[in-house]
Amino acid sequence: MSTARERILAAAKANKPAETKLPDVPVFGGDASVERFAAVLAGIGGQVSWINGPRPSAAELQQLFPDARLVASPLFPASVPVDQQTPISVLEGIDLAVLPGEIGVAENGAVWLPEPAMLHRALPTVTQHLALVLDHRRIVATMHQAYAQIPDAGGYGLFVAGPSKTADIEQSLVIGAHGARSLVVLLH
Amino acid sequence: MSHSIRAEKFVADVDRTTWHDETLWFVRQKRDKAVYGVPEFQELRELASQIKEHTLSRLDDYLVQFEAAAKANGVHVHWAADAREHNDIVLGIIRRHGATRVVKSKSMLTEECHLNPELIRAGIEVIDTDLGERIIQLRDEAPSHLVLPAIHLKKEDVSDTFHLHLGTEKGNHDPQQLTEAARQHLRAKFLAGQVAITGVNFAIAETGGVVICTNEGNADLGVNLAPVHIACMGIEKLLPRLTDLGVFTRLLARSATGQPVTTYTSHYTKPAEGRELHIVLVDNGRTQQLGRPDFRASLKCIRCGACMNTCPVYRRSGGHSYDFTVPGPIGAILSPNIDMKKHSSLPFASTLCGSCTDVCPVKIDIHVQLYKWRQVLAEANEIPASKKWSMKFMGRMLTSPKAFGVSGRLGRQALRLLPHGLTHATSLNTWAIARELPEPPKQSFREWYQQQEGKS
Fold first, then answer.
1. Is the ipTM, as predicted for this complex, more than 0.85?
2. Does residue B406 sit in helix, strand or coil?
3. What number does CATH give the domain B40-284?
4. Which of the listed CATH numbers 2.60.40, 1.10.1060, 1.10.1420, 1.10.3470 matches domain B1-37+294-383?
5. Who has the most CB within 10 Å: A23, A179, B61, B83?
6. Whole-prediction pTM value?
7. Smallest CA–CA separation between A102 and chain B, in Å?
8. Closest residue of A to B89, CA-based?
9. b/e burial code for range A121-130 (CB count within 10 A of at least 16 → b)
10. Dihedrals φ, ψ of B137, to 5°?
11. What's the pLDDT at B131?
């Protein structure tokens, strides 16, 4: 008896239509300004804040997140050291994660966060609050330009656009469903 | 039971029907606003359509390419010809790990395969973690929409459900507080999850990775805390290249809810160190649909739900009236492929206005397929006798000018002479259930025209 794999592939081969062309996707232009990025991000519940360099200072963090007690970050000596082996019992208590984002997308406020930037894969969603540090020169107009700069997605990587949200109860928008309750992009 | 009989129950509550209609129309309007902000949106639709068509035209090649790339990434790839095989594979993986606690993010495929009841029967605790899915799971209901599974419920319903199951304050309808209660309840489940099951929005043949889009972050939280991830996908989810995602991520959320993009667009390519990633490739009728030239374009669907939000019939009859995993216009063209007899009424639950086709981000000719399914169903004798014979009679009458003239005269006379209770008897004339017949004219246009000729 043939395997499911063989049966599915044989049926797909037998039933598929005549081959059509794979189109080239043009790189559409668009507005890649910081203003657009900030406006769109504000529209989806996030916010932009300026910092002086790629590593936020203690004073800048204190001003932005006065209540954050347990903080994780690869950018400065943080209160909670996190790596891939960090147990869930530690991860679940984290108030704030400050992670280096790689690319910003002006059309939708998303920031590309590759695996090496996030210490532990669960950190960007398990933390109560998330801050992504981004070089403002790395903002592109659309997702096309963003993907053009991502040669492969790595083992894991994600675009994060604003805080976790839901509208599953009568279409009322509520910020803070399961992931981070707030998202700040720290531009420098 | 047909769509119209189920819809009758839904529309019995007039206020709720109006609310449902308006709520979904509001989502459609949000979609329009988002779409008009992208000057190249129509070009993107065409590109998405062409990319999907190309992928289907080489589906076997891309499946093989995807499998090889995924295996090279250390992913376990499984193949399931039908729902039975899919459920067995998933249960097998869970059992091999001795797991009893499963957290699940949204997956219409697992709904299609009825995975949850299978797992629960096998003694596994299955927790749906999308808020809408969790609400309907607690109520033991099916989703009524592709992306808004609890859209048929009002906040009072959710409040009652959470009071009963999560112990929230009775009569507290505040969405913010209800969501917070669900967050706390589900967080405990996430932290304790042993296996995470997810659906898949897109699978990339060249990288062997899968992409999952959520707003809540529930897929990422579940997957990245659990030791085992099982991603279940229909074989039509494939895209050839990573860069194709540029097109599809620009279309999906805008078409679905009017957002510029989903909050999380997550790319799972390799399992984390010491963990497992399983991908289950499921056919379950898809290769059969691929072999139907008139209907294969339905496989391009990216499950955004735009066709539902715009459909005048869906908005006023609710998702449960369709009694199929995928409701609305797209469900009405997918379902007859699965079971022509059971779903024979769905292609008729449409005005054929074409609005679904207009908003479809991958340009599926939904209303044309609805029309074509009607022909197929009639040929297969799967339409009610009353519809079949009245259509046959109408067909004859309308093709003969003589018969048409006679019938018109008889009809006008009958309407004038017969009592209203008889001409509008709903047992004989279902058309008149909610409509008034027009006042019969004294003569037809043809009769009038002939008189004019005599005069000149």
1. yes
2. helix
3. 3.40.50.10420
4. 1.10.1060
5. A179
6. 0.95
7. 15
8. A4
9. bbbbbbbbbb
10. -65, -45
11. 96
